[in-house]
Amino acid sequence: MFPVQEELAQYACKVDLRLAELIPDADPETKVISEAMRYAVLGGGKRIRPYLVFAFSRLSSGDPAVALDFGCALETVHSYSLVHDDLPAMDNDVLRRGKPTCHVAYGEANAILAGDGLLTRAFGVLSESGAPAETIRRAVAELSYAAGYAGMVGGQTLDIATEGKPVTRETLTKLQRLKTGALIRCACRLGCISGGVYGGELFDAADVYAEKIGLAFQVIDDILDGTGDPALLGKSVGKDEASGKTTWLSLLGKDGASAFAEELTRAAADAVKPYDGEGRLASLADLLLHRKK
Asked: For the domain that residue 274 is a member of, what is the CATH number?
């Protein structure tokens, strides 16, 4: 198989270096916010979303520098969402990526502002990427839609509304397609957009691939939250069960959830098989299926 784990690690380093450039230290009087932003976005992470931008940009013959900035913009949005998701009003988590969450380290008000700063910085990064104007326009529209009320924010809203209530498989699927899947779909689409591919067979295949790995990713996340090692995961476990959330683990059981994730992973690989000559995308889907953190 393609050595995706090695390439992913190498690309994550490249993303980290670029993010450090894109979010520099600010004016001394507002330094606490830039520090909190950097704390959140540079504090580790697998950088799967930027890697997906890179992978689909390669397939669409995109500029690697543009793909990198598009991926970094997406990662700042993802990081903002984690900062806000960890807040006391949301999941009230105290540990993220093996260290105190942003609001624990910097206070709740500064964490909210840091999240706001990361979200707004993303669109500056897109506009400064050097891509053609039409490409930037489409990228801005794509990211704003994926991150907003029709995407990730809508998923978080549905998550809050259903907490402690019985949830059907259909509702859980919708919730996860919005909360987790929207940014993964956006990553694959941004990769295509970076190369000037705005529709067609590759774009459609990217959508199917994203939908399948996005759902599989959340299924594995649910399994790990119920059965994983907190030291390895770098975050608290068991919170879903404690808060009464319906998850794929509680809905299907461990064996059923694992089988569902495998089914989704196979479907993802099949969707991009005509384009995935090196096996990069199939290998990534398999890596995500078997992750332990």
From this structure: 1.10.600.10
Distance CA 35, CA 202 (A): 39
Tell me: the pLDDT tens digits for 68-107? 999 999 999 999 999 999 999 998 999 998 899 999 999 9
Containing 100, the helix (H) or strand (E) segment is strand 99-100
Contact indicator for 40, 121 with CB cutoff of 8 Å: no
Phi, psi of 95, deg, nearest 5: -135, 135
Q: How many domains does the chain have?
A: 1
Residue 96 is classified by DSSP as: E
Distance of alpha carbon 208 from alpha carbon 185, whole angstroms: 9
Token representation of residue 130 = 């050097």
User: Is residue 177's pLDDT more than 70?
Assistant: yes
Residue 19: how many other CB atoms lie within 10 Å: 25
Domain of 101, in residue numbers: 4-289
What integer pLDDT is reported at residue 27 of this predicted model? 77
The answer to whether the CB of 132 falls within 8 A of the CB of 55 is: no
User: How high is the mean pLDDT of the chain?
Assistant: 93
pLDDT of residue 227: 77
pTM over 0.90: yes
Closest CA to 205 of 60, 17, 25: 60
